[in-house]
Amino acid sequence: MNYRRKSQSSLESDEKRARFVLMNNGVTIITRILKQNASKFYIEDFQVVNGCQTSNVIFDQKEMLAKNPTVTVPLRLIWTEDENVMESVVYGTNSQTQLNPEQLLASRNFSKKLEGYFASFPEDKRLYYERRDGQYDRAAVAKNQIMAPKVVIRAYAAMFLKEPHTATKNYANIRERIGKEIFGENHVPDPYYVAAYAAYKLEQQYGIKIDRAYKSARYHLLLAVRMLMDPEPVDWPNSKKMATRSQSMMEQLWDAKRADELFQQAKALIDKVSGGDLERDRIRTITTTDAIVKLLQK
């Protein structure tokens, strides 16, 4: 019997409902700011890190509970500003549930390195890697500068693994490679920033210099841009050469005029290989990928 079914069964009788508080994991909240006034607590900048299943079970049984409002739910309120403590709590309180790879990324050393690397650039070139959901909700940061793990992973796979078709149509396949071909502990962070920055610049092109119809070809455009900047086969992701080549690509993307040229050339290439048919099921294919690579690779 899974956790949810056990929780539901614990609400079926008066005796079991009385034990719900003892048998249930309840809700866990981490807060950075806490003020106490007698028996009342005031919290700010908080995150609910566990309790989804409990909430769903109670909601499912709301009609029965309306007639028998005798259920008590345990609540853990943790007050800390220590990022390591937060990550330990998130992992520990969810150890019995299946966390997806993006959630587990927050506790990886590479993710911490990537966050610091993104934040190290001057303000006009800075992006913010969001290790944890809602990490920058209270920060004075433009939303389009915040890069969620999925955005970075997809852009990197498209540009450096030459798999834009997989990034859109079979993302589960990419997720399975996290920690190996993607987000490896010894990978250099530079190409991940390039991928994220290219995705960021592409979003700025839509509706202004590139028609929004080309959103169906988003990841193929990113592949084309990378190969226009650097058509050579990709080096090992932990190599100094890959870091050096990434630096050259950054310089091109930071140059507004050069970036516009790259995206226009990529757009023209998409027109050529697609014959003008931007319907997503036609464009998001390995056939499109192979056509781009054939035209641009050395």
Could you characterize what this model shows?
With 298 residues, the protein is mainly alpha-helical. The chain has two domains: 3-99, no CATH class; 102-296, no CATH class. The chain has 17 helices and five strands. The strands form two sheets. Strands 2-1-3 form a three-stranded mixed sheet. Strands 4-5 form a two-stranded parallel sheet. α13 packs across α15 and α13 (218-229) packs parallel to α17. The longest helix is centred in the last third of the chain and has 19 residues, at 256-274. The protein is elongated, with a radius of gyration of 24 Å. The mean pLDDT is 85.
Task: Please supply descriptive tags for the structure shown above.
298 residues; mainly alpha; two-stranded parallel sheet; 17 helices; 5 strands; 10% strand
Write the layout of secondary structure elements.
Elements: H1 3-9, H2 14-18, H3 20-23, E1 27-37, E2 40-50, H4 52-60, H5 62-67, E3 75-79, H6 83-93, H7 101-105, H8 109-119, E4 128-129, E5 146-147, H9 149-160, H10 164-169, H11 171-175, H12 190-205, H13 218-229, H14 240-254, H15 256-274, H16 280-283, H17 286-296
Parallel strand pairs: 1-3, 4-5
Antiparallel strand pairs: 1-2
Helix pairs in contact: 1-4, 9-12, 9-13, 12-14, 13-15, 13-17
Reading side by side through the largest sheet, how are the strands ordered? Answer: 2-1-3
Average predicted local confidence, pLDDT: 85
Stretches where pLDDT is under 50 for at least 5 consecutive residues are none
Count of individual domains: 2
Count of DSSP helices?
17
Radius of gyration: 24 Å
Question: What best-fitting shape do the alpha-carbon axes yield?
Answer: elongated
Q: Report the sheet-strand fraction.
A: 5-15%
Helix content: 40-55%
